[in-house]
């Protein structure tokens, strides 16, 4: 069941509603985590996702994850003062405590690589669409976890994504791309003024983007990667920028633009 991860760049505010649903992730972080290493919400600037003028937070979904009729929040974060190679990235799931405006920790884990959070039904063919949320650790990979709340144990159970062949192959399938290669490829692609303008325009109208990255030649490491930045409207591609970048030479090789 191949569930090829595509980085969905979503706006935090689009998934928050009224009442406790308007939970502030920074309130939860401040209440539950020690502050000496400056924990905060992971944003696009941390991932070098294009040269966006105003970095915005990655998705922190809100939902009734543990079926207690209250809304909880899943937060992907980073410790500013820890170094690369340390476990500087974290996943925090927080919910309301008995006292007003206080929080309880439902899940906590550390990682050496960024943690990407996905809504149910968004991780590709084979997504069960019945989980609380899902996570993955790289751009262009097909490995991740679905999170389910266990009422008896009082905690989350992580189920690794299983794999099977896709029945359809619409275009090139993303291969696993390391975070380092993806980060550099995105940064190079963002040097193009038209690409940066496209990203900014979609952000300004609170649109939805997805970014797909794959090697130029399957199975060969030549330092070249395709970066495709796509605007999604009505669950379909409405426009895209496709850029071939050379990580070794730090340059853009060519660019294709598509508008439907």
Mean pLDDT: 78
Rg computed from alpha carbons, rounded to a whole number of angstroms:
19 Å
Number of strands: 14
How far apart the termini lie comes to 30 Å
Q: Could you explain the architecture of this structure?
A:
With 260 residues, the chain is mostly beta strands. It has 2 domains: 154 residues, no CATH class; 81 residues, Nuclear Transport Factor 2, Chain: A. It has 3 helices and 14 strands. The strands form 3 sheets. Strands 1-11-12-13-14 form a 5-stranded antiparallel beta sheet. Strands 2, 3, 4, 5 and 6 form a 5-stranded antiparallel beta sheet that branches. A hairpin with a 4-residue loop joins strand 13 and strand 14. It is globular. It starts with 6 loop residues before the first strand and ends with a strand.
Overview in brief:
This protein is mainly beta. The chain has 3 helices and 14 strands.
């Amino acid at each position: 069941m191949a569930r090829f991860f595509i980085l969905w760049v979503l706006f935090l505010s689009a998934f928050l509603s009224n009442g406790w649903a308007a939970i502030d992730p920074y309130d939860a972080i401040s209440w539950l985590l020690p502050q000496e290493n400056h924990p905060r919400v992971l944003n696009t600037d941390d991932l070098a996702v294009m040269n966006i003028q105003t970095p915005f937070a990655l998705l922190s979904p809100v939902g009734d994850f543990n079926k207690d009729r209250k809304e909880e929040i899943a937060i992907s974060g980073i410790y500013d003062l820890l170094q690369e190679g340390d476990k500087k990235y974290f996943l925090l799931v927080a919910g309301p405590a008995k006292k007003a405006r206080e929080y309880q920790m439902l899940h906590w884990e550390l990682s050496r690589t960024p943690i990407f959070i996905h809504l149910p039904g968004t991780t590709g063919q084979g997504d069960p669409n019945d989980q609380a949320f899902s996570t993955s650790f790289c751009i262009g990979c097909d490995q991740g976890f679905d999170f389910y709340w266990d009422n008896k144990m009082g905690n989350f159970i992580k189920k690794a994504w299983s794999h099977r062949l896709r029945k359809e192959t619409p275009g090139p399938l993303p291969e696993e791309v390391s975070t380092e290669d993806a980060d550099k490829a995105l940064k190079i692609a963002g040097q193009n003024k038209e690409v940066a303008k496209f990203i900014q325009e979609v952000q300004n109208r609170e649109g939805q983007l997805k970014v797909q990255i794959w090697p130029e030649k399957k199975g060969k490491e030549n330092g070249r990667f395709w970066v495709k930045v796509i605007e999604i409207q009505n669950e379909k591609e409405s426009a895209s920028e496709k850029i071939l970048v050379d990580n070794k030479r730090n340059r853009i090789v060519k660019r294709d633009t598509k508008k439907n």
